[in-house]
Amino acid sequence: MQKLPQNFETYDEARQKGFLRMKDLKDSGKRVIGTFCSYVPLELFYAADAVPVGLCASSEEPIPAAETVLPRNICPLIKASYGFALTDTCPYFYFSDLVIGETTCDGKKKMFELMNEIKETYVMQLPNGRDFKDAIPMWRNEIIRLKEKLEDFYQITITEDKIREAIKLKNRERDAIRNYLELGKLVPAALSGYELGTKIDAASFSFDIEERIRNFSERADEVLAYWEAERKGKTSDRPRLLVTGCPNMGVREKIIKTVEELGADCVVIDTCNGIRTQMDKVDENADDVYEALARKYLNITCSVMSPNAPRFEEMGRLMDEFHVDGVIEIILQACHTFAVESYNVKRFVTEQKGRPYLAIETDYSQADKGQIATRLGAFLEMLS
Ligand code: BJ8
User: Fold this and answer.
1) Region 35-60: what's the mean pLDDT?
2) Can you tell me which atom of ligand 1 is nearest the CA of 76?
3) How far is it, in rounded angstroms, from Cα 59 to Cα 80?
4) Which atom of ligand 1 is nearest to the CA of 78?
5) 286-310 b/e (C-beta count within 10 Å ≥ 16 → b)
6) Could you report the per-residue pLDDT of 57-82, keeping only the tens digit for each?
7) Nearest Cα residue to 54 out of 24, 27, 14
């Protein structure tokens, strides 16, 4: 598999470097909007000449502070995100003019009420499902409501032409990211799942979208050239894994990196910080830009949707196209939607696809690192 590139940045290094870029942006008068969830249509921020920055946190550091307000038994992503805001230790939260939340899971939506006391947090009302008649019109209305909020907040007008331009720009970025992620289809594996995931998350701290597009395209060319010269036609006995479940930036080292060190290749990361959000594009030719955005974003296959059949269709397709031997699901502790849906994921993977499945429930601490490594080792033995 291709080694990490020389200029490879870990997630923490990229986050750290992004602080200065963000400060420069703010000093130059740029608008900055903090976001949490993949359902939020980023195109509207670009159309408002603002840069979005993801605020989902992955560190255990601010969790004790968060637990002075929030209950202990909610997901670490929620606690860490709120903890950073409460202790004023996240420069991205600090520099955000406005925070955009959404009613995905219960913990997050109630946390946003408290976050709003620290910084204005506008909450989009996400439908719980996508299969009922009013789902698209409801989400379309919410997208228009967000556009109006931005217009009011910044005292600007966001035209449909600006939104169309932003749709084309984001689609170009999706193409570049998807081309890079689809290198995971190559047999034997061309690059590590650790790189795939880290690069996507790290990119969210580079705020120039054209630079991100260039960066993904260049890395994809480099990896493909390496694979054709060094790997094509060779065999490998390393099992190929699909990783699914919750966003994994806070647990990537102890799960994805560890399983790869133990001898597997994570060839596709089917999560919000992986391929899940990059598959569909927004229809650039639709008459109604708001409906086009609503259709793309409501199609994201997060477990907060009920029912969630597209998640299984998508997972099946990815398992086939990426030649997957087994599936690991990462569930952040107390994430009820992914935890409950894991029963159906297990049935789908084992009964319909005939492959082994392993669910790992964890948080951001290092306490279970050894136990996780042992379980991953046992899982790989099953696959060999
Ligand atoms: S679209 S995955 S980014 S909600 S892990 S906070 S669901 S209790 S992060 Fe997510 Fe949007 Fe879905 Fe993606 Fe709640 Fe679960 Fe915590 Fe979660």
Assistant:
1) 96
2) 16
3) 6
4) 6
5) eeebbbbbbbbbbbbbbbbbeebee
6) 999 999 999 999 999 999 999 999 99
7) 14
User: Helix H segments across the chain?
Assistant: 11-27, 43-47, 63-66, 76-87, 91-95, 106-115, 135-154, 160-181, 193-203, 209-226, 252, 258-261, 289-298, 309-321, 336-347, 369-383
d(CA 236, CA 190) in angstroms, rounded, equals: 11
Output the residue whose Cα is nearest ligand 1's atom 15.
335
Tokens 């946390």 found at: 111
The residue with greater pLDDT, 30 or 18, is 30
Average pLDDT over residues 15-40: 94
DSSP state of 147: H
pLDDT at 1 over 70: no
Report the distance separating Cα 234 and Cα 227, nearest Å: 10
Q: Are 269 and 277 in contact (CB under 8 A)?
A: no
| pTM for this prediction | 0.95
Nearest Cα neighbor of 24 from 95, 88, 90 is 95
At 248 the pLDDT is: 96
CB 33 within 8 A of CB 207: no
pLDDT of residue 13: 84
Q: The tokens 């950073």 sit on which residue?
A: 84
Ligand 1 site residues, Cβ closer than 6 angstroms: 37-39, 75, 77-78, 104-105, 107-108, 246-247, 272, 300, 302, 304, 332, 335, 337-338
pLDDT tens sequence across 201-256: 999 899 999 999 999 999 999 999 999 999 999 999 999 999 999 999 999 999 99
Residue 91's pLDDT is what? 94
CA diameter of the chain: 61
Atom of ligand 1 nearest to the CA of 300: 1
Sheet holding 50-54, edge to edge: 50-54, 31-35, 98-102, 121-124
